[in-house]
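Progress against Task 2.4 (sequence-to-structure conversion) is shown through the following example record, which the project officer requested during the mid-term review.
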Amino acid sequence: MPHTLTITQAAERIRSGRLSPVELLDACFSQIEALDGSLHAWVLVDREGAGQSARCLQEELARGRYRGPLHGIPVGIKDIIDVKGMPTAAGARHLYNRVPDKDAAVVARLRSSGAVIPGKTVTTPFACFDPAETRNPWNPDHTPGGSSSGSAAAVAARMCPASLGSQTGGSISRPAAYCGLVGLKPTFGRISLRGILPVSYELDHPGPFTRSVADAAVMLQCLAGRDPLDPLSADVPVDTYRIEPPARAPRVGVIRTYFPENAGETMREATGDAIERLASAGAEFTDVHLPGSFADLHENHALLLAVGAANVHGERYGAHRDAFPPGLREIIERGRTTGAVAYARARRHQIAFKSEVLAAFENVDLLLTPATPTPAPSGLTSTGNPAFNSPWSYAGLPTSVLPAACASDGLPAGIQLVARPFAESQLLSISAWCEAHLEWDRAPSILSGD
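C-alpha cells generated for the chain above:
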C-alpha cells in the first residue's frame, strides 16, 4: 500500500516507474479520508492544488526529469508556515487568518525538490501550550503532543510520509516521541525561519517529522542552508547528509542528573533498556555533567518565550485580549510585565549556557536522554511536558528523537540524542546506527486494518 511507504521506499519506486506521484498522493488522501474524522490532524486539505502538482511531477518523470528523493513525495505543513494561496491561521482563525502571496522559504525549498504539499496540519493556537483538537494515533484518548500536533499525527497515521513542524520548547521532539516517530530539530539557524509565524525569535527551530532517520536526512538535505533574507539564518556550509555507518562505535554521554530524576518509571526503564542494547552492539557510554547554569535554564527559557510571544502578538493581544486562550494569555501577560533588565539577564544566561554546555561533549560524540518524562499523557487538556527538550532549544543544539520501546499500555517511548552545533551529519549517522540496533517495528493501533 503506497501510503505505508517511507520517503526512501517511495522515492525508489517513483524513480523506477513502479509508483507514480499521483498514485502516492491518492493513497495519502484516502488515508486522510479514512482517519482524519477521528484524529483531526489536518486543518486544510488541498486536493486540487496538490493533485495538479502531482500530475505535473509525473509528466516531468515521463520527460526524464527527476528532481531527487522528494520528487512526488507528499509533505504536510504546520499551519504557522506560509504556503502560497493557503490560509495561515496558526490554530487561531478568529484572531489570525491571512492568505500569503508567497511560500515560506522551507516550502519553496520543498517545492523546488519536487515535494507535493497536500495541505496544512493542525497546530495549537499560535504554536503555544493550549491543546488543539488533534488526537494521538496510538490511542485517541491521549495527546499527540504540541504544538506540532497535526504534523506528528499525520505522519504516524500514514497520511503523508513526512511533515514540517517547529520547536520553541519541545514541539518537534515531544510529538515525535509521543507518536513513535523520528523528529529532527536542527541547529538554530540551520533552516530558514522566513515565512513562519514566530513564537520567539531567540528560540524557534523548524524541522521534519519522518518515520526513519534516512528520511530525516533527505528532508534536511532539502531544507538546510543559509537564507540571505533571514537575518537569523546561519552562514554555515551544508553537508551531504548521507546515512553511512560510523567509522567506529559511537561514544555516548549519559546525563545522570535531572533527566532520570524527573522521568517516570516507564521512561527510565525504556532508556535503560535502550542503553543496554546499544552497549551490547558496541557503543561506549560515559557519564557526563551539565554546567551549573543548567539550574536556572528552565526559568530563563520560559522568560524568553514569554517576552517573544508578547512581542509577536503585541497589537493583536491589546485589541483582542479576551479572545486569546488561557495558557497563551498567561504567557503573554508575563512577557508584557518583564522588565528590560530581566530580559537582558536571561539572554546573557542563554549565551553562557550555550558556551558552557559544550564541555559535556569533550570526550563523547553526543548525549543521550529520555525524550520525554513520560509517554503521551491521557486526556486532551495538556500537550505534555517539554522539560527534557527545552534545554536544547534554549542552547540551539541539534537533536533527534527515536522510538525505542512501547510502554505497557502500548504507547511509544523515545530516546533523545543531542549533538554539537551544526553536527547534523554525525547526529544522523549515529541516529541511524541506533535505529538499526533498537529495531523499532511497531505501528499505531489505528492502522491495524492496513
